[in-house]
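debug: dumping io for the single-chain case to check the tokenizer round-trip. Nothing else runs in this session.
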Amino acid sequence: MATILMDLPSAWDALDGVPLPRGYRVEITDGKIIMTPQGEQQWRVILRTAPQIEQQLAGHGDILSDVMIDFPSSQFGYAPDLAIIAPGSERNSRGRFEWHSLEAVIEVVSMSTRDNDFDKKLRMYAECAIPLYVIVDPSDNTCTIHSNPTRTGVYVDQEQIAFGEDLLLPLEGRGIVVKTDGFPRSGG
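debug: decoded output
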């Protein structure tokens, strides 16, 4: 995958130097700064998923959690729960990766982020041609894998698996398998 650094104005520029509260996620949607507390279920999914992915990447790419990514619109700034960065990707002059460096994004739904994860992020990630967008939903114990994005903001293919099944992430030239049996289930 070739990396082209666009170095466009970033939604994150508005937050440069601003102290942000610990334990909160900060994202920018439609030009609005949104802060939500990170929930225990979200944290547990990230904690169980990231090491599995990192081990299987084996130096061919990277995985980040809650790290600012620059998107092509100054109205949107997301810090995905988990982002798989393509091998050979470079940071821009701000020290951040840009959307075209992403091979996959994994978001863990909470009640406060549900609409954003299933609507606005789904559309933005597809428009940006991010190959895989996975929504992990502890409220119904499922993972939904969205693939084959279109520039019109739609993923052509969707596959849903239940917690306990293997989550398959077909990356360019390799595949990642995430065991979901340890994910926290609704009600616990």
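debug: round-trip ok. The chain has one domain: 23-179.
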